[in-house]
Amino acid sequence: MACTTCIGHRPVALRRFPAGDVRASLKAARAATEERARTDQPVHVHYDLRTDAFVVLRTGPAKEVTS
């Protein structure tokens, strides 16, 4: 299932936390909260199955639609 926050935007990976670390999810959530406080951009966390890591993403501006 696609992330509704990322659809139509350009997500930018800011930090990665290997899922082998039992606190990775907590560290990623904390990093996302700090980034939200530092900028006015939307930031959230994804789990990336390919790299087995939690990734902090900033959602950039919407993609332009060309017809």
Supply the key terms.
alpha+beta, 1 helix
Structure description:
A hairpin with a 4-residue loop joins strand 2 and strand 3 (53-62). The chain starts with 8 loop residues before the first strand and ends in a 5-residue tail after the last strand. It is flat. It is 22% helix and 39% strand. It has one helix spanning 24-38, and strands at 9-18, 43-48, 53-62. With 67 residues, it is of the alpha+beta class. The protein has a 3-stranded antiparallel sheet with strand order 1-3-2, with helices on one face. It is built from 1 helix and 3 strands. The longest helix has 15 residues, at 24-38.
List the helices and strands in order.
EHEE
The overall pLDDT average reads 87
Relative strand content = 35-45%
Unreliable stretches: none
What Rg do the Cα atoms give?
A: 13 Å
- For the largest beta sheet, what order do the strands appear in spatially? 1-3-2
Number of helices: 1
DSSP strand tally: 3
The biggest beta sheet is recorded as: 3 strands, antiparallel
Give the distance, in angstroms, between the N- and C-terminal Cα atoms: 26 Å
User: How much helix is in the residues?
Assistant: 10-25%
What's the shape? flat
**Structural class, from helix and strand content?**
alpha+beta
Secondary structure blueprint with pairings:
Elements: E1 9-18, H1 24-38, E2 43-48, E3 53-62
Antiparallel strand pairs: 1-3, 2-3
